[in-house]
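Appendix B. One record, verbatim.
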Amino acid sequence: MTTTVIDKNTRAQRLVKGWRFFAASTTAAAFLFVINNFLTHAASLPGPRNPETILAWLQLLAYPATITALALYTLRHGSLNSDAAKLEAVAQYIPRAAFFAVLFIGIADFTLSLLHIENLSDTLLPAEIAQGIAHSQYRAQLHYPLLVIAALVALRKRGAPFVWLTLLIVAAELLIVIARFVFSYEQPFMGDLVRFWYAALFLFAAAYTLKEDGHVRVDVLYAGFSPKAKARANAAGVLLLGFPFCWTILALGLATRSSAVNAPILNFEITQSSAGLHVKYFMAAFLLVFALSMTAQFAAMLLRSVHTVIVGEDADESADKSAPSEQTE
C-alpha cells in the first residue's frame, strides 16, 4: 500500500512539473520569437532560419538555452500557484506598460500634429524639430524615449489602468464634439487619437478580462459543471484554442518582413491623411501586446486549472506546496 501511494505521488509530481514546464516554455518561446523577429528585420541580424554566422547561431541557440533553464527551474523551484502568479504578473505588466506608452505617445503626437497643422511649430519649436515632425521616421524617434519612460512607470504602478483609458477615450470624443459643433473646427488627428486609444483599450484589456473571468461566454453546459470539470474544460480550451490562436497571430503577423505586423512597424506606416497622427505603425504592435499578454495569461490559466484538478478549488498556496503532487525533490 505504501509503495503504491509513493508511486502515485511520484507520478503526480512529474505530471505537475511537466505542466509547469510546458506553460513556462510556451510563453518564453513566444517572447523569444518576437525578439528574434525584430533582431532579424529591424537590427538586420541574419536570423535563426539562416544559421550561417555566429550571431545567427546565438539567435537559434537562445531557444534551447531558455528551455533548458526553465527545465532546471521547474525541477528545483516553484509550484503551480507560484508559477501562475508570475505568469499573471507578466501578463498584466505588458498591457500596463503599453497603456502608459499609448497615453504618452498619443498626447505628444496630438500636440505635434496640432502645432504642425496650425503652422505653430516654426514659432514654438526648434528648427530641426519643426522640420522633422512632418515625417513619420522622425516622429518615431521621438516616440522611442516615451516607450522607455512608459516601461519604467509601469514597473512602479500596479493594477489595471483600463478605466482611465476608457475615460480618456470619452474625453477625446467629447473634444471632437465640442470642437466640431461649437467652434466648427475638426482635424483628422483628432479622430486618429480616438481610434488609437480605442484599439489599445480593446486589445490591452483582453488579458486582464480573462484573468477576472469577465469575457462573455454562453454557459449552456459549462455553468452546470463541477469545479474540476470546469478546470478541465478551461485547460482544454487553452490547449486547443488559446495557445493556437496566439501563435497564429505571431506566426502570420511576423512571418516575413512584409507581413501584417512587420510591414507597418518597419516602414513607420501612417494614415493616408498627412494631417493625422503618425502612430499607425505603432497600432500594428498592439497585436503583439495582445498575443504576448494573452499567451502568458492563458499559461497562468492552464496552471490554475491543473491546480484545481489535482489539489482542489479552494486550496491556497500553502496547501499547494504541501500536497504530494507539489512537493519538490
